[in-house]
Please model this.
Amino acid sequence: MDMDKDEVGEAEDLVEAYWLQVDSSLSRLQILQERIRNTEHLVNLDLDSKRNALVALGLAVDLLLMCFEIHMAVTGIFGMNLTSGLERWDPYALWGVSAFGLALGLAALTTAALYVKRQGLLFLPSFGLTPGIGGG
Model:
């Protein structure tokens, strides 16, 4: 087979044109793959943020429930049919024990909330009580 130089040059030009097209397509696919990877990272960050917000909400609800559980435990113990010495103040004893339990629960809630806020585990608004960011 005799091929002249023009035919070989033409074949080389065709192969080079196809090579450039394949190289261009490959670079486009690599850019697209990088964009997909970046979008996936952004979605994962957003999901992590939402998960952290749910964990923080769960922690806040648990702290609030702790307040009520302490109150219920104190009131339940003194509300039993056991002799405790508080029977003398019959109309006011239950209210006093309930108030004591509520105060104890609120003190535990405040202590836990301050600890959580100082450790940076949960964002609790300051309601303008302490100067901070955004407090005018």
In short: The helical segments are 5-78, 90-119. The chain has a mean pLDDT of 79. The first helix runs from residue 5 to 78.
